[in-house]
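Let us practice reading a record.
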Amino acid sequence: MADRTTDPVVVIGLGRFGRALALQLTQQGTEVLGIDSNEKTVAALANQLGNIAVADSTDIEALRQLGVPDFRHVVCAIGSDIQASILTVGLLSDLGIPDIWAKAISHQHRDILARVGAHHVVLPEHDMGERLAHVLTGRLLDYVELDDDFAMIKMKPPRDLVGITLSESGIQARMNVTIVAVKREAEGPAARFEAAHGDTVLMYGDTIVAVGPVPALERFAEME
């Protein structure tokens, strides 16, 4: 697998979800700043996360002192403390973070987080921490798990698929991935997704939607 580079990521809240996400990002070579209010949690992860701190994320000065406003990607992974979760996302929005991800534990919680400034909200099980890492650091624009081992992804087309029909590419037979829709960059802001067919020819700048088994999609997303 080729090395990938990305902006560093802040993960606030190092419970089950936050820990899984932070460790997966670190494993993929992404610089991570982990923040949690619990000293024991931070101490337990100190040897696995090189950059980690004890702090109250509902204190805007604490966030500033840790340099959080300098980060592009911040994930609020706080779980059961809904008040802290909402306050933290609100402060991240006040700080002008351009890409705020947040964990919700209910649909109502999700809606509130979106209203106070979260750009992306997930209601994850444990393994979603690892899946989200692929969206943050890879070429995926979106990822939706449809079943335990089947998903849908949105991304730009790999170079190998540009300029030929999908039938000629043989992508379904080779990769076990089906491209189901395409949005044409050439059509500008008014572009909408349209169904893809065997005679569809992809162009640079297009956005595609593909479905398939998760391992197959992960291999597909690594194509140049």
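A brief commentary: The first helix runs from residue 16 to 27.
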